[in-house]
């Protein structure tokens, strides 16, 4: 039976005893157990590692730890052997025996599993030396690789719940709010509203029955920072929420998580249970007068359910549709009660601020945006993964220093930030220090931190078509401007991509896009035109090429390209001829083939299968 | 506009919140919408999805007004936006007019055969529609849903789906037990009232409906109106004669004859 902690002193004692059990020299094999790595068999790897440790007689001498996401998912599953911090990438269950036998017992490094530097090809031994990690400033993600999220002891040993104790014993609720205000923390869910001020509104709102919500809907396709925090370090979010509840005077908390995140829900549930057993969550927390508990709500899956009023409707069991603000949730939220909503990452920042103080926290960042931000870096970049950098880091640092540059040797063309309704930022703005203001000036948004890198093989008309398609389906459909506006924008952009655009189309896009932005009720409609407006702003020539010259410069838009075989390069191997699904390729063996453009459906199979790369796009 | 009984007795705005609309000061009860406050001042703001007696929905966005100043200025739907102390709202700024026109153009493109929409187009100077017409029989304004729920106390129909898949239906698309076939939904529907089948292609914004004389009285001894007060429904459709030189497929209707148009 686990004993509940009756007071802060009990927690301190527990921490001391947990630390005493730990020998810093003791070898620990941490295996990433995040969703990304689990997709590449990390669960089997963990089992294999445990059984190898037992088989080779090290049980009780060497630890195996399944941790949260390390953020370098492309190279996963990753294994870190501490205390030496030896970093192995793309480890398979079959590698377990060798890692235990060689690295753990004999202290030999397995060269083949080390990370190789992109430029020099040199092998890198430890995690901290890998540029992807080295150039980051990890505050929120730092503990992910040290903690087994299913063990509260791991969190407590690392000062966990120390901030809660500090708030409960040394600070008044007002002082907590003041500290959060001073820290300059702004909401990480998209809009960047100053968190301390939001808390103050909610604290001052009339009524005793107040709620807080953690927004873990994370609807941006391709973004997974909130998932990684929830599944890798759930206690940091719980602790943040508890401090928030204390400051605001809330009694009930909810974590709204996407149903698509089963591991996050699972780990969070375990964490909540363990916190309750320890007396950290529930009635009279750690012997104080403060009582608070957290429930999990599973999201319905629509993108718009991430919008705060839509989310509240969804928790209440109504259709997840946004409504008019004001009244803001801080005065009239869940079941009409004052409700404070913050994003997962926002909550995870709170223990840091309370523990280390606002002035420490605000040392990094820009004038208007403090602290760090986690981005989910994907697309045509060598190192995809989770990137945590100080506010004010430049796009160049993220794409080149951390991301390792453009994948496949192409040139950087643009980076799309902020999720589906963010904008595309072109090459000449690579040195832009990113924060809320600079991104919005550049025609984009911070959003929740998605970043998609695009190379010169990307057609910007195609990009804006893609996002408009997503948004026209994800609009809740209430506002005429948003529902019909995005549909019509899509229609025009589609027409342009098919070579059927006309002179006035670009003006019409701009005119309509501004109305969609202006007239729509919620953030979805208000930001939906960003992809099309930003691509039009920075890549207008490309649109014009589609309209006037009926040409897609990037060779992407199917209706405007033709596949041609270079007779000099073609070796007449018949491969493309056989693979073409519509028999558009003609020719004889060892003689150059030809593609009948009328028959060709532009599937691109011939390009993919041609060994001498004789097929090209015009 | 159609008039419905108000669920609560109408209150004259008094006490409470002070705001400024188009430069005029007005004091209203807390909870009053900006639209109501503007109408109290006699200002005209077009609405489509809002009808007195039904809850505000904020779907058509036609009632947008501009609030705030400088960088912070933005548009909000006045039917849903609550009057706040110190609020400054403007009902006819450039931004408002531009937005409203585009919204009407979008409406015309969805349901060019709606008389209500054609009237709005004419009233607010929308003369073209640059989008491909869809001939939908619903613009998703949600009036019927609220009519059914709030005035007929039934709740037989509701929205389902989102985005492009949004539509109005009964639970499970089956005949609803709750429906008493009262026809309230059709009465309130702005698309169910068809425009005249004028000489112009239905996609055109004809603009003649606003100053239209009923045509049925020429043919019949009585007005043939079955909707709304006599002579204003505008659903009357004349037999029409062929327009010469138009290929014979377009019909000319008396209503478009300029001699019959009243000057606005
Ligand atoms: C269409 C839309 C989707 C959103 N999705 C999310 C989301 O997935 N997660 C999130 O934290 N905030 C999301 N937001 C922002 C929330 O409305 C809200 O601003 C945020 O949860 C507040 O927390 P913060 O102040 O900590 O950022 C979304 C907003 C809009 C308009
Ligand atoms: S802006 Fe779009 S998503 Fe938001 S309420 Fe209006 S229709 Fe729904
Ligand atoms: S059926 Fe008519 S009243 Fe109902 S939502 Fe559609 S347009 Fe509006
Ligand atoms: S009348 Fe206000 S949005 Fe329709």
The N- and C-terminal alpha carbons of chain B lie at a distance of 18 Å
**Which CATH-level-2 architecture of the largest domain in chain B?**
Roll
> From the helix content, strand content and strand pairing of chain A, which structural class follows?
alpha/beta
Low-confidence stretches of chain B: 9-13, 208-212, 233-264
Overall average residue pLDDT of chain B: 78
Shape of chain B: globular
Q: What is the count of β-strands of chain A?
A: 19
Please characterize this protein's 3D structure:
The complex is a heterodimer of chains A (618) and B (264). Chain A has 618 residues and is an alpha/beta fold. Chain A is built from 25 helices and 19 strands. In chain A, the strands form 6 sheets. Chain A has a 5-stranded mixed sheet. In chain A, strands 2-1-3-4 form a 4-stranded mixed sheet, covered by helices on one side. In chain A, a hairpin with a 5-residue loop joins β11 (372-379) and β12 (385-390). Chain B has 264 residues and is an alpha+beta fold. Chain B folds into 4 domains: 15-92, Ubiquitin-like (UB roll), CATH 3.10.20.740; 94-139 and 190-209, no CATH class; 142-189, 2-Layer Sandwich (Alpha-Beta Plaits), CATH 3.30.70; 211-264, no CATH class. Chain B is 19% helix and 12% strand. Chain B has helices at residues 34-40, 94-110, 115-123, 143-151, 184-188, 216-219; strands at residues 17-21, 24-28, 64-67, 74-77, 88-90, 158-160, 167-169, 241-242, 251-252. Chain B has a 5-stranded mixed sheet with strand order 2-1-5-3-4, with helices on both faces. Chain B has a two-stranded antiparallel ribbon with strand order 6-7. In chain B, a hairpin with an 8-residue loop joins β8 (241-242) and β9 (251-252). The longest helix of chain B has 17 residues, at 94-110. Chain B starts with 16 loop residues before the first strand and ends in a 12-residue tail after the last strand. Residues 9-13, 208-212 and 233-264 of chain B have low confidence and may be disordered. The chains are: A alpha/beta (618), B alpha+beta (264). Bound molecules: flavin mononucleotide, iron/sulfur cluster (SF4) (2 copies) and FE2/S2 (inorganic) cluster.
């Amino acid at each position: 039976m686990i004993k509940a902690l009756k007071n802060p002193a009990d927690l301190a004692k527990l921490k001391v005893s947990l630390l005493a059990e730990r020998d810093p020299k003791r070898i620990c094999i941490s295996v990433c157990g995040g969703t990304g790595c689990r997709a590449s068999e990390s669960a089997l790897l963990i089992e294999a590692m445990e059984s190898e440790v037992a088989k080779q007689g090290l049980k009780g001498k060497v630890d195996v730890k399944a941790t949260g996401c390390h953020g370098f998912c492309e190279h996963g599953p990753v294994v870190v052997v501490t205390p030496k911090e030896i970093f192995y990438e793309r480890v398979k269950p079959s590698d377990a025996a060798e890692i235990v036998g060689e690295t753990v017992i004999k202290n030999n490094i397995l060269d083949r599993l080390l990370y190789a530097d992109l430029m020099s090809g040199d092998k890198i031994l430890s995690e901290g030396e890998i540029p992807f990690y080295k150039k980051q400033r990890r505050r929120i993600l730092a503990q992910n690789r040290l903690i087994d999220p299913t063990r509260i002891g791991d969190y407590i040993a690392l000062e966990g719940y120390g901030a809660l104790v500090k708030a409960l014993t040394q600070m008044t609720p007002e002082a907590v709010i003041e500290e959060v205000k001073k820290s300059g923390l702004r909401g990480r869910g998209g809009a960047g509203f100053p968190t301390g001020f939001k808390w103050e509104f909610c604290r001052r709102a009339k009524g005793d029955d107040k709620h807080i919500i953690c927004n873990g809907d994370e609807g941006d396709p391709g973004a997974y920072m909130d998932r990684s925090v929830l599944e890798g370090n759930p206690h940091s979010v719980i602790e943040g929420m508890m401090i928030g509840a204390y400051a605001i005077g809330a009694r009930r908390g909810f974590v709204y998580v996407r149903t698509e995140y089963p591991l996050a829900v699972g780990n969070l549930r375990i964490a909540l249970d363990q916190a309750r057993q320890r007396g950290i969550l529930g009635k009279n927390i750690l012997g104080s007068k403060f009582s608070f508990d957290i429930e999990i709500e599973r999201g319905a899956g629509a993108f718009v359910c991430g919008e705060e009023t839509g989310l509240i409707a969804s928790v209440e069991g109504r259709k997840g549709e946004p409504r008019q603000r004001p009244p803001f949730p801080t005065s009239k939220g869940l079941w009409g009660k004052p409700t404070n909503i913050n994003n997962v990452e926002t909550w995870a920042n709170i223990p840091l601020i309370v523990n280390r103080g606002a002035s420490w926290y605000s040392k990094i960042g820009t004038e208007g945006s403090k602290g760090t931000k986690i981005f989910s870096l994907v697309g045509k970049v060598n190192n995809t993964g989770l990137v945590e950098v100080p506010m004010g880091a430049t796009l160049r640092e993220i794409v080149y220093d951390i991301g390792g540059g453009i994948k496949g040797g192409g040139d950087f063309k643009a980076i799309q930030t902020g999720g589906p309704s963010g904008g595309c930022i072109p090459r000449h703005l690579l040195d832009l220090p990113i924060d809320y203001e600079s991104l919005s000036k550049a025609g984009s948004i911070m959003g929740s931190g998605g970043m998609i890198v695009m190379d010169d093989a990307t057609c910007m008309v195609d990009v804006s078509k893609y996002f408009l398609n997503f948004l026209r389906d994800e609009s809740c459909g209430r506002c005429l401007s948003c529902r019909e506006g995005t549909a019509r924008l899509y229609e025009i952009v589609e027409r342009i991509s098919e070579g059927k655009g006309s002179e006035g189309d670009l003006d019409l896009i701009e005119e309509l896009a501004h109305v969609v932005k202006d007239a729509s009720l919620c953030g979805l409609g208000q930001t939906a035109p960003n992809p099309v407006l930003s691509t039009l702003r920075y890549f207008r020539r490309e649109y014009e090429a589609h309209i006037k010259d009926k040409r897609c410069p990037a060779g992407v838009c199917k209706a405007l390209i033709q596949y041609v075989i270079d007779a000099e390069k073609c070796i007449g191997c018949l491969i493309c001829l056989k693979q073409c699904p519509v028999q558009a390729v003609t020719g004889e063996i060892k003689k150059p083939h030809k593609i009948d453009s009328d028959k060709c459906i532009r599937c691109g199979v011939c390009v993919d299968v041609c060994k001498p790369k004789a097929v090209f796009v015009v | 506009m159609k008039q419905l009984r108000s669920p609560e007795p109408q209150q004259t705005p008094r006490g409470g919140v002070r705001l400024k609309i188009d430069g005029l000061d007005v004091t209203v009860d807390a909870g009053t919408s900006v639209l109501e406050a503007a109408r109290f001042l006699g200002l005209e703001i077009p609405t489509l999805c809002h009808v007195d007696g039904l809850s505000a929905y904020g779907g058509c966005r036609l009632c947008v007004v501009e609030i705030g100043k400088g960088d912070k200025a933005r548009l909000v739907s006045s039917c849903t936006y609550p009057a706040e102390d110190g609020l400054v709202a403007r009902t006819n700024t450039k931004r408002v007019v531009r937005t409203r026109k585009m919204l009407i153009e979008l409406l015309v493109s969805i349901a060019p055969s709606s008389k209500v929409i054609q009237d709005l187009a004419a009233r607010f100077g929308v003369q073209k529609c640059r989008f491909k017409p869809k001939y939908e029989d619903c613009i998703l304004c949600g009036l019927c849903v609220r009519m059914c729920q709030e005035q007929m106390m039934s709740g037989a129909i509701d929205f389902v789906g989102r985005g492009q898949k949004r539509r109005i239906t009964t639970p499970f698309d089956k005949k609803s037990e709750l429906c008493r076939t009262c026809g309230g939904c059709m009465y309130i529907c702005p698309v169910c009232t068809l425009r005249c089948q004028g000489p112009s292609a239905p996609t055109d914004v004809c603009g003649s409906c606003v100053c239209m004389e009923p045509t049925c009285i020429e043919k019949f001894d009585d007005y043939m109106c079955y909707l709304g007060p006599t002579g204003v429904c505008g659903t009357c459709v004349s037999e029409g004669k062929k327009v010469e030189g138009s290929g014979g497929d377009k019909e000319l209707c008396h209503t478009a004859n300029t001699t019959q148009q009243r000057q606005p």
